[in-house]
Amino acid sequence: MSSDALPYIDNQYKLPAVKSQVDALISSNLPSTAASPTALHPSVARDFPDLSPPLFAHNPALSSALDQLVHSTNGKSTLFPAPSPSADHGIDLAAYSLPTPTDPSSVSPAHWRALVTRAATLHAHLTNQMQNLELLGVYGANAWRYHLMQVEAHVEALEKHVKAVAEQVAQVNEVRKAEQENAGQQLDRASIELLRTRMSNLRALVTVAHMEHELARRRGEVGMQQGDEDAMQVDS
Predict the structure, then answer these.
(1) Rounded to whole angstroms, how far apart are CA atoms 69 and 78?
(2) Please, which residues bridge with residue 76 across strands?
(3) Is pLDDT above 60 for 48?
(4) Is the pLDDT of residue 161 over 80?
(5) Where do the coiled-coil regions begin and end (predicted)?
(6) How far apart are CA 105 and CA 13, in angstroms?
(7) What Cα–Cα distance (Å) separates residue 28 from each residue in 125, 177, 216?
(8) Cα dist. 34→27, 30, 212 in Å?
(9) Closest by CA position to 72, among listed 82, 57, 86
(10) Are the C-beta atoms of 68 and 79 separated by less than 8 Å?
(11) Do the Cβ atoms of 23 and 30 come closer than 8 Å?
């Protein structure tokens, strides 16, 4: 069974008793998020049984992480704790520095080879970074402009889509309002006609009752006259 609200002609929803009853019906049709935050809507679980199992049921690690995130304490997730205020959030530059021996004569050949290898690695990394910066300086501005053009085109397309959907919604609401107002006028006329019919029936019932009463009275008079005549005949 399906039903549709009639906001343009039905004002009963403003009554507290009716509003509480409607809200209770809506709440009964929704899943209990407190009992199961990842539960699906009953209609979705019925129409799509494959989606009924909990999220990440096939992956225990993700399921455990989701449970930790959902069952957080005091509004703070136990899975992603807040960073400590005393933590050092600076950039670690140790990977980009090359330690210099204080006494080169005491450094072993193996340590020198490790230093040379690290220096070569740092040189290659910095060379790659410099090349990337040079390419960014030459092509970065145009690439950024092209990216902005793509974003603007995407936003414009989304705005057109939103506008089209809004127009469709407005058209549907206009048709719905016209249908409800037309139905409301028909209901008003039908209610008036029903009231008139009931009043006419009531008048007819009153007339019939009056006629029955008058008929009973006249029958009584006729009976009394007949009794008097019979009594007179007996006396004579």
Answers:
(1) 6
(2) 73
(3) no
(4) yes
(5) 148-175
(6) 93
(7) 62, 28, 61
(8) 13, 11, 69
(9) 82
(10) yes
(11) no
Q: Residue range 21-34: average pLDDT?
A: 71
> pLDDT per residue over 168-207, tens digit each?
999 999 998 888 888 888 988 999 999 999 999 999 999 9
Answering whether pTM is above 0.90, one says: no
Does the structure show a pLDDT above 50 at 62?
Answer: yes
State pLDDT tens for residues 83-114: 444 445 455 666 667 777 777 778 788 888 88
In SS3 terms, 184-235 reads as: HHHHHHHHHHHHHHHHHHHHHHHHHHHHHHHHHHHHHHHHHHHHHHHHHHHH
| Residue 116 · residue 104 · CB < 8 Å | no
Residue owning tokens 């992603």:
80
Query: Please, are residues 153 and 146 in contact by the beta-carbon 8 Å criterion?
Result: no
